Amino acid sequence: MDGQVAAELHELHARVCKAIADPKRLLIINELRDQELSVGDLCEALDISQSNVSQHLAILRERGVVSTRRDGTRVLYTLRGTKVIQAVDLLREFLAEDLADRGRLGSEMTG
Amino acid sequence: MDGQVAAELHELHARVCKAIADPKRLLIINELRDQELSVGDLCEALDISQSNVSQHLAILRERGVVSTRRDGTRVLYTLRGTKVIQAVDLLREFLAEDLADRGRLGSEMTG
DNA sequence: ACACTACATTCGTATCTACGCATATAACAA
DNA sequence: TTGTTATATGCGTAGATACGAATGTAGTGT
Fold first, then answer.
1. Staple partner for B21: which of A21, A60, B13, B65, CB 3.0–4.6 Å?
2. Which residue range or ranges hold the HTH arsR-type domain (chains A, B) (predicted)?
3. Which pTM does this prediction carry?
């Protein structure tokens, strides 16, 4: 495969990864895991300002992670597909294993 | 669940996600997919400077994504476990679907 | 000891990102 | 129209990130 094309694809790939590489966006994704929510719902549930929630949702929208639907004055957000959630869960399992490993190492070192 | 603890866990979770949220680190991870490689091997294969490769590997090491083994003067890098690779692949599939939806570059991904 | 190779780390800087604030847009009601 | 609610977007800035260049460190051989 052409190195130039490979680099550009990895750039796009990284953009999708960056979509989930922020603590607040992970919180948002978790809230949307099994329910459709408005911007205001997310603000209240996560105690984050409206403008900040909208900014994070704009990133998730741009990367194709979420889709939107209007309901009167509100805009409801949903996760598009399950692959992103699956990836998020895999990385969380990875983190859990890593924390367990380091916890075991730490206790061994401290006796 | 306590919101404060949840936020801290998502901070750690995001740190793992950030590890794969960079095009060069994705290239490195792909090179290590099925072979153990030295820093110099990666520099040559990816045409990236030695210091930059070492910097990216330091991040992957710190996040627990790769492990190291000394062989003389060289240091060989390996992926720790398969969960990160699985997550990377899922996000790549997600990207491929999204690009196909938008009608661009979809065929490049499956080749 | 010295030199050489392979890798890691520090530093300065350019670029990027997240955030608050203010403002703009959209839908609806009176 | 005006007003109100809900969401989006532009702007400025503090902090994070990526990079090259230089330097530090570890292992090997002479």
1. A21
2. 5-99
3. 0.92
